[in-house]
Amino acid sequence: MRKGISPLMATVMLVLIAVTLATIIGPWMYELVRDRMNQTDDDSQMEIRCETTAYDFNPSYANSGINWSATDPSLRVMITNTGQQKLYNFSFELTLNSSTAISYFNVTAATQRTKEYPLNPGESALLEADSLSSIAGSSLTTVKVLNRLVCPKVYVQQDV
C-alpha cells in the first residue's frame, strides 16, 4: 500500500498556498495597475494639450520676427500664440557660426511669460534673451523658441 497525503489535505494546502500568494501579490499588483493608469492619464492629457499648442514668429516684427545684434549682443523675438493653450516659461536655443555650436538662454524676467501672466491665444509677445555676453561677435544662424512646461514637443525655429 502506498502512503501519501489525503485528497482533502492536498486541497486544503493548495487553497492555503493560493490565498497566501494572493495576499502577498494582490496589493503589489493593485499599486502597479493604479500607477500605470495614472501615468497613462497624464500622458493622454499631455498629448491633448500638445495638439492644441502652437506659436510662431510674428513676421511683422524686425526680420521675420527676430531682431539680432552681434555687437551688443542682443536678441529680441516676437512670437504669436496661434494655438488654444495659454503659454509661459519660454527659453531660447541658438545655433552659432553655421556649426553645431548650440547655446541655451533664458528669457529676461521683464519679458518672460509666467503661469500667472501667460501668452493667451491670439496674443503676441516680445521676448528678449538674457545674458548673451558669452556669444558677443558670433554669427547667429538659427533661433529656436522653446516652451518646455506647457508642451515640450512644440517649438518654433527660424533661420537668421
Structure description:
The chain is α+β, with helices and mostly antiparallel strands and 160 residues long. The protein has 2 domains: 1-51; 55-159, Immunoglobulin-like (Sandwich). Helix content is 28%, strand content 29%. The protein has 1 helix and 8 strands, in the order αββββββββ. Strands 1, 2, 3 and 6 form a 4-stranded antiparallel β-sheet that branches. A 4-stranded antiparallel β-sheet has the order 5-4-7-8, with no helix packed on it. A hairpin with a 4-residue loop joins strand 4 (90-96) and strand 5 (101-106). The radius of gyration is 28 Å and the shape is elongated. The mean pLDDT is 88.
Class per helix and strand makeup: alpha+beta
* Rg calculated over all Cα atoms: 28 Å
> What's the N-to-C terminus distance?
95 Å
Number of helices: 1
Please give the CATH architecture of the largest domain.
Sandwich
CATH class of the largest domain: Mainly Beta
Percent range of helical residues: 25-40%
Strand/helix succession: HEEEEEEEE
Name the poorly predicted regions: none
Domains, number = 2
In total, how many beta strands? 8
- Mean pLDDT across every amino acid position: 88
Label the overall shape: elongated
Q: What would the CATH topology of the largest domain be?
A: Immunoglobulin-like
Strand content: 25-35%
Reported for the largest beta sheet, the result is: 4 strands, antiparallel
